[in-house]
UniProtKB/TrEMBL annotation:
<dbReference type="InterPro" id="IPR010648">
    <property type="entry name" value="UPF0270"/>
</dbReference>
<comment type="similarity">
    <text>Belongs to the UPF0270 family.</text>
</comment>
<dbReference type="Pfam" id="PF06794">
    <property type="entry name" value="UPF0270"/>
</dbReference>
<dbReference type="InterPro" id="IPR036685">
    <property type="entry name" value="YehU-like_sf"/>
</dbReference>
<protein>
    <submittedName>
        <fullName>YheU family protein</fullName>
    </submittedName>
</protein>
Length: 85
């Protein structure tokens, strides 16, 4: 199930920051980023927030394993789109 962007705005700021940081760290692990300093992390966080706002990135909640994660929209199954409507 996709979490609407407006719902993300009602989350505590620390919760959203933690989700973004986890997403960005997953990008580090797969090699999308390398050698990131604090300034680059701050910039990447802002880009991630903007991508969430634009819908390029989405937050997906999995009821099966009760997890939540940021994903690229094109990597989400059509089933998730149907549930978010």
């Amino acid at each position: 199930m996709l979490v609407p962007y407006d719902a993300l705005l009602s989350l505590p700021q620390a919760t959203l920051q933690a989700m973004i940081k986890e997403y960005l760290l997953s990008q580090l692990e797969d090699g999308s980023f390398s050698d990131v300093d604090e300034q680059q992390l701050t910039q990447a966080t802002e880009r991630c927030k903007l991508a969430l706002k634009k819908g390029e990135l989405v937050v997906e909640y999995s009821e099966d394993d009760e997890s939540i994660a940021i994903r690229q929209r094109e990597h989400i199954s059509a089933k998730a789109y149907d549930q978010s409507a």
